[in-house]
Specification:
By secondary structure, the chain is of the alpha/beta class. Helix content is 25%, strand content 20%. It folds into 2 domains: 255 residues, Glucose Oxidase, domain 1 (3-Layer(bba) Sandwich), CATH 3.50.30.50; 29 residues, no CATH class. It starts with a helix and ends with a strand.
């Protein structure tokens, strides 16, 4: 390469770098976290010892509800996500096992995406034009080998007051139709009718009975994956204004699909995550809670702390 061309390339690189720094310097107001410029856990900061103790006092019967749906290779997932499990017996072929006592064991190999089935979206998941929570641009933290900021290993877990809003009761249907947004007005009305309030640090779950499309009397996995009811734009803005810790639903994407406004894509994700640092829980099996008429409970989640992970398969527990 000639000297003049090397100079030109160097100038271009410098210019591009300067452009990136200029872009970062002009970050919009929403990128400034209320918990400071170094914060990486967002709404988990609302998980105070006092709130955890108050949530524990909601336990009256001790009944435990598993919120994580069962997932396998046939579970519908946002494309191109998939998974498979291979079970084998390492170093035991043609032997009676290990040691004189013939110890044998099974191991399993997981191959797949961590954002499949019952999952938590970490704060490094949803962005606005490559900008994420607390003003992090993907070029500075989204390394192919794992996030260098906002990874789910930073999250200690989520424990607090859980609130279930039964939207089938609100709309007086057996199953809420796809494309139905949960607006601010819907959320307020459902909460009032079910005798609960939503406050700072709460984990709010929505029940639509969408899970019956996977294992109910008339399963329809194609319909399950094609669209869904869910949180709308005004609903997301309202929940964010209350300072909730997490928002979840019994659907694969938590928010309404198709979107309320044509041409928009996952706008509720953007409101909750990059703009407010709120965690998202998807594919939560809320049917037993709804069947028992449970609207508030102790919520406990402890995710695998894989360094740099964006999302994680989870099985949160509700205790009433």
């Amino acid at each position: 390469m000639s000297i003049s061309r090397k100079v030109a390339v160097a100038a271009l690189v410098t210019c591009l770098g300067a452009g990136a720094f200029a872009q970062d310097a002009e970050k919009p107001e929403w990128t400034k976290s209320q918990w400071g410029p170094d914060d990486e856990i967002g709404s988990a900061n609302t998980m105070t010892p006092e709130r955890v103790k108050d949530a524990a006092e909601l336990v009256t019967t001790g009944k435990v509800y598993s919120l994580g749906m069962i997932v396998d290779s046939d579970t519908p997932a946002f494309p191109p996500r998939s998974l498979s499990v291979t079970v084998l017996q390492p170093n035991q072929v043609s032997t009676s096992g290990l040691g004189e006592n013939a110890f044998t064991y099974n191991d399993d190999i997981f191959m797949g995406w961590l954002g499949i089935g019952p999952q938590i979206d970490g704060l490094g998941h949803s962005g606005i034009d490559h900008m994420y929570y607390n003003g992090h641009s993907d070029h500075e933290f989204a390394d192919a080998a794992g996030l260098t900021k906002l990874g789910l290993e930073k999250l200690p877990g989520l424990v607090g007051r859980g609130v279930l809003l039964d939207m089938t009761a609100h709309f007086d249907v057996d199953m809420v139709e796809e494309g139905t947004p949960y607006t601010e007005e819907d959320i307020k009305a459902a909460a009032e009718a079910q005798g609960v309030t939503i406050g700072e640090g709460d984990v709010v779950l929505f029940h639509s009975n969408w899970m019956d499309l996977l294992d109910g009397d008339a399963p329809d996995p194609e319909r399950f994956a094609a669209a869904e009811p869910g949180v709308g734009v005004s609903g997301a803005e309202y929940l964010a204004s209350l300072g909730v810790m997490a928002v979840g639903a019994d659907t694969w994407g938590m928010e309404v699909v198709p979107a309320e406004e044509e041409g928009q894509a996952f706008r509720a994700h953007q409101i909750l995550q990059p703009e407010h640092g709120i965690y998202i829980l998807e594919n939560m099996d809320t049917r037993e809670l709804a069947q028992d008429g449970v609207h508030e409970f102790l919520f406990v989640l402890g995710q695998a702390r894989i360094k740099g992970a964006v999302q994680m398969i989870i099985n949160p527990i509700a205790i009433r």
